[in-house]
Write a structure and sequence with these properties.
- The chain is of the alpha+beta class.
- It is built from 11 helices and 7 strands.
- It has a 5-stranded mixed sheet, covered by helices on one side.
- The protein is rod-shaped.
Length: 448
């Protein structure tokens, strides 16, 4: 866009300059005609003498004025067609010499020679220099030989040099200075464009640095968000599940008539849940304080080998829990093992909260390259009186789904019959037995 404005401005300036040059040519032609008229009036004519005779033909005075007008008209076109104007001027000069010559036509020829040397092409200027030098030398030699006098040779050479060579020398000097000025102006324009390009490059570099800073900031925010999500899952697993178990055991004991043995068993289960929660909380705190967090896959406490503890805790509430284990599902990767353990923990906790007393079936089996964990309760999908909203954070299903998807698996949860009626609730997690090695981030996310 700036280049378009530049060329538009430059074109306007060139148009103004052309108009100014045309006006100057008109002024020059008029002034030359006035000066020539004066010179003719004062008698500066018949300047060429051959053997003492004046001219070849003596014209009427008005012919000299007409010839002067033709020469001045050539001045008007000297800038656009310098060599053609000079050719016309030479023809006018020859006619004037035939009439004896005049200072007025000499001034016209001088101006046309200057114009040809100023605006003509380099080849035309070289040709012009050769012709004028040749004419000057030959004319001086011819005059000296005719008069048999060296002084005539010198005087004629000086006169021809003043008329023919002086305007060429002056024009050449002016043209060289003009070309040098144009070269300096071009260099200045190039330096200005280079400076503008450098400024643009610096601006682009600043914008790039700003973009990189924004990208880095977004990466930091994304890392913080991912870390917060991982911490939220860890807190949910460590705190919510065990506290929910404590609330369920204590609530069940409070609803039934006092019984020392049963109440003591409930208190023991409450203590077990609290101690386990403290141990996992301590492990999580050590994990968060570790400088290696995020650089190495670290697995939080909890393994499928310890699933018996989860089942015993659920049975302690009076819930009938059955477990079916497929031997082919053993020796799983740590991340898969951890994810399935957490899904089982949350599914059992939800079953105890929303369907207390209903039988629960837990099944772990191998299906091709996947391991399938199924937790099914026979209760209704409606909340029981023990389903206090305070016991649920509303993130259980989200946490289980994130655990399964974090190791490349899927999770389905809903009514067992696929409807909103009775028939119980089923949680089914399908997880591949191998965690992808190209992106260890999901494994760390699922591991806590």
């Amino acid at each position: 866009m700036s280049s378009v404005r530049w060329w538009s401005r430059d074109g306007a300036l060139r148009q103004v300059w052309r108009l100014e040059d045309a006006r100057n040519d008109v002024v020059t032609a008029v002034m030359t005609f006035v000066l020539g008229w004066v010179l003719i009036e004062v008698g500066l004519v018949d300047l060429v003498h051959v053997d003492g005779a004046i001219g070849i033909v003596t014209p009427e005075p008005w012919w000299r004025y007409a010839l002067l007008a033709v020469g001045c008209a050539l001045i008007l076109v000297k800038r656009r067609h310098p060599m053609l104007a000079l050719a016309g001027g030479v023809a006018v000069m020859l006619v004037d010499l035939a009439w004896g010559g005049s200072l007025a036509i000499t001034i016209v020829l001088w101006d046309l020679l200057y114009a040809a040397a100023t605006w003509g092409s380099p080849r035309a200027r070289a040709w012009l220099w050769g012709v004028t030098v040749t004419v000057s030398v030959l004319g001086a030699v011819a005059a000296g030989e005719a008069a048999r006098d060296v002084r005539v040779f010198v005087y004629t050479g000086l006169q021809l040099g003043a008329v023919l060579l002086m305007p060429l020398w002056w024009a050449t000097n002016v043209r060289q200075k003009t070309e040098l000025a144009e070269l300096e102006r071009a260099r200045a324009d190039l330096a200005a464009r280079d400076a503008a390009s450098a400024a643009r490059a610096a601006q682009l570099e600043r914008e790039r640095a700003s973009d990189l800073e924004r990208i880095s900031e977004l990466d930091r925010h994304e890392a913080v968000r991912a870390e917060r999500a991982a911490m939220a899952r860890d807190l949910h697993d460590v705190i919510a599940s065990h506290l929910s178990a404590i609330a369920i055991h204590s609530g069940a004991a409070l609803q039934l008539p006092p019984d020392a043995g049963r109440d003591r068993a409930a208190l023991e289960q409450v203590r077990t849940s609290a101690v386990t929660s403290l141990e996992e909380m301590r492990s999580m705190i050590l994990l968060l304080r570790s400088e290696r967090r995020g650089s190495e896959p670290v697995v939080a406490p909890g393994r499928l080998a310890e699933i018996g503890t989860l089942l015993d805790a659920a049975r302690a509430t009076g819930t009938e829990v059955t477990f079916t284990d497929d031997p082919g599902a053993a020796e799983l990767p740590a991340a898969v093992d951890q994810a399935l353990y957490r899904v089982a923990q949350e599914a059992l906790t939800n079953a105890l909260k929303h369907a207390p007393g209903a039988p629960v079936a837990v099944r772990l089996e191998r299906s091709g390259d996947d391991v399938v964990l199924t937790v099914h309760d026979d209760g209704t999908t409606m909340r029981s009186p023990l389903g206090d909203p305070a016991l649920s954070a509303g993130t259980g299903l989200l946490t289980m789904r994130e655990r399964a998807e974090g190791v490349g698996g899927t999770l389905d949860a809903g009514p067992a019959d696929g409807s909103a009626g009775g028939g119980g609730w089923t949680v089914r997690a399908t997880v591949p037995t191998a965690v992808p090695h190209d992106d260890p981030a999901p494994a760390r996310e699922a591991a806590g």
